[in-house]
TrEMBL record:
Its EC number is 1.-.-.-. It comes from Arabidopsis suecica (Swedish thale-cress). One of its GO terms (molecular function) is N,N-dimethylaniline monooxygenase activity. Belongs to the FMO family. It is an enzyme of class 1 (oxidoreductase). This is Flavin-containing monooxygenase.
Length: 450
């Protein structure tokens, strides 16, 4: 174990992004005594939860010259976990009164944004945020001292480019912006329209069309049902389905699930592995996103390789730059907000010298061992940061470093129960449930914070 930094030192820290990760990072860093500047390219806090009707000029989002729209949220989106599980641990996402508030247990995106604004107000976060200020370059500034970082940013209104030095940088830029696409044999001569779910907002443009969605994510599940209300036919194709899959969804006469697409053709047809051939108007890729840090220049020390961001110790610190560069929100298949909160507490405590880190060599050994384990298990690099069932072990490890309590039992049970319900009843899980005893336990805990 390397010695901790000199105890309780305060540093000048830049946080990139004022979404759910950046907001709680700013709070924890300031609580720990650091001075914090949050860079946010949008006009308000909330990140991906700031819904906009605007979409990108390139519906597939591949044109590098396109103007990027940050949010991927569609108009009908309701959260896919309970509000009790979704909120930060010490600022529960409870029902609040107000004209446009949504009291449902699985509320719409607008309620999440309102909650994040409540959080920012409660903890005075906005005074640390420079809005409409985009970070365009982050690079080591060794000439300024060990561990220092140069941040170049542009302010939209004044069109000013600033160049500043910080002791540390915490990257919270969001990971659902740069789309991944499926490879489809024959696509270059297929005459239909292609798009990514990043640019989906409302069902109306799909009226009377035949649409294929590729993917099995929550987005594919929600969007296929949204579109099926107006489209002629909706076909969901998924790589993980067995080759003979062809299932009509109950409750619909125009929604089917298939195995993956085998090929597409000049006459507009789409051929599935299950042998079906269908003439299609639109293919929508609901195939997720790539980690993307267009501003980060580390001379190749931190890379994104087949969607593995690395090397990262515990998904947070690149050993070569620890603790002066860190990332929040890299793991997926998690309850994001509580994890962001714990990662933030850990980073803040490590920076002040209160919490020790292992030596760079030991961190690298742990990372390499983890990569080898994945390789032996045949897990592709792109799943490096997938957590699922291991998330609570990870959260508890972070909690132990920070001296906080472990994940509440009700939160674990509720999260697992919701996952089962979602799988079995994708249509109704947001409105019907039977875990009332867990809700009571959650609200008992929440009373500590009211
Ligand atoms: P974001 O919310 O994306 O925030 C990042 C911020 O960084 C943005 O404000 C952005 O403007 C800013 N930024 C980026 N680059 C720069 C730069 N260079 N300079 C300055 N600012 C910059 N999570 C749930 O818990 N429940 C759900 O039901 C759920 N549903 C989802 C549905 C969809 C369609 C998507 C896309 C995500 C969903 N998520 C859900 C996950 C969601 O992304 C997280 O809840 C959370 O928003 C991630 O927070 P973040 O702060 O990491 O990123």
């Amino acid at each position: 174990m390397a010695p901790a930094l000199s105890p309780t030192r305060s540093h000048h820290v830049a946080v990139i992004g004022a979404g759910p990760a950046g907001l709680v990072a700013a709070r924890e860093l300031r609580r720990e005594g650091h001075s914090v500047v949050v860079f946010e390219k949008q006009k308000q806090v909330g990140g991906t939860w700031i819904y906009t009707d605007e979409v990108e000029s390139d519906p597939l989002s591949v044109d590098p010259t396109r103007s990027v729209v940050h949010s991927s949220v569609y108009r009908s989106l309701r959260i896919n976990g309970t509000r009790e599980c979704t909120g930060y641990r010490d600022f529960p996402f409870v029902v609040r009164s107000g004209v446009s508030r949504d009291p449902r247990r699985f509320p719409s995106h607008g309620e999440v944004l309102a909650y994040l604004k409540d959080f920012a107000k409660e903890f005075g976060i906005e005074e640390m945020v420079r809005f409409e200020t985009e970070v365009v370059k982050v690079s080591p500034a060794a000439e300024e001292g060990i561990g220092k970082w140069r941040i170049e940013s542009t302010e939209k209104e004044k069109k000013v480019r600033r160049d500043e030095i910080y002791d540390a940088v915490v990257v919270c830029n969001g990971h659902y912006v740069e789309p991944r696409h499926a490879e489809i044999p024959g696509i270059s001569s297929w005459p239909g329209k292609e798009m990514h779910s990043h640019n989906y907002r409302i069902p109306e443009p799909f009226r009377d069309k035949v649409v294929v969605l590729i993917g099995n994510s929550s987005s594919a599940e929600d969007i296929s049902r949204d579109i099926a209300r107006v489209a002629k036919e909706v076909h969901v194709a998924c790589r993980s389905n067995p080759a003979d899959t062809f299932i009509k969804q109950t409750g619909y006469n125009n929604l089917w699930t298939h195995s993956m697409i085998e090929s597409v053709h000049e006459d507009g047809s789409v051929v599935y592995q299950n042998g079906k051939t269908i003439s299609v108007d639109i293919i929508m890729h609901c195939t997720g996103y790539k980690y993307h840090f267009p501003f980060l220049d580390t001379n190749g020390i931190v890379t994104v390789d087949d969607n593995r961001v690395g090397p990262l110790y515990k998904d947070v610190f690149p050993p070569a730059f620890a603790p002066w560069l860190s990332f929040i929100g890299i793991p997926w298949q998690v309850l994001p907000f509580p994890m962001f909160e714990l990662q933030s507490k850990w980073i803040a405590g490590v920076l002040s010298g209160r919490i020790p880190l292992p030596s760079k060599e030991d961190m690298m050994i742990e990372i390499k061992t983890f990569y080898s384990t994945l390789e032996v298990q045949g897990i592709p690099k792109r799943y490096t940061h997938r957590m699922g069932n291991t998330q609570f072990e990870y959260d508890n490890w972070l909690a132990s470093q920070c001296g906080c309590s472990e994940t509440e039992e009700w939160r674990k049970e509720m999260c697992l129960a919701n996952g089962v319900r979602k799988e079995a009843h994708p249509e109704t899980y947001r409105d019907e449930w039977d875990d009332h005893h867990l809700v009571s336990q959650a609200y008992q805990d929440f009373s500590l914070y009211s």
